[in-house]
Fold this protein.
Amino acid sequence: MRANEKLAIVGRQVALVPYEKEHVPRYHEWMKSPYLQEMTGSEPLSIDEEYAMQQTWRTDDDKCTFIVLSKDAGSTACNVHDTSRMIGDVNIYLNNADNPHEAELEVMIAEETHAGKGIATEVLRLMMGYAVSDIGVDDFVVRIKEYNSASIHIFENKLGFVETERAPVFKEVTLRRKVDDELKASLAEWTGHAARIEFAK
């Protein structure tokens, strides 16, 4: 999605930046992991296929991604072009023909050293804030492996999602959160610290 190609969002622990060609090699290494493939429902790609996929993230109007960079706690400075700080990504898909304003969320913290520190929660809050304010999303949905209890906990207990469906065949749980006044107020509180800066190359 071109809407975010010049935008970086800087939070307390992370910065969200557009997915650039410079990010592809490390992303490609992450996705060699069978565990990450399973958790994200992804198939392994060649490096050339990964570069081609990066271009679709830039040009397709029905999906949006940010690369997640780690940030020194307490620091206001952040080099949004430092690829060595890559720790994951966050995505939305606008693929519901019946509701074009529904976004399916995905988050991946690929670097294990950054797991369990509240980073995924902040990343999701920043992405949800962007999706509501800039894209006009009015409904969120996530589909998570039923044994991924950590992720389910984040969505239910940190973000207020409610389970609406289980698919035993796929071992998936579906959770949803409507964008109402309560969520908008929460997002304003959760993301009020964040800075939006130009991602200039």
Observations:
- Residues 63 and 93 are 4 Å apart (CA to CA).
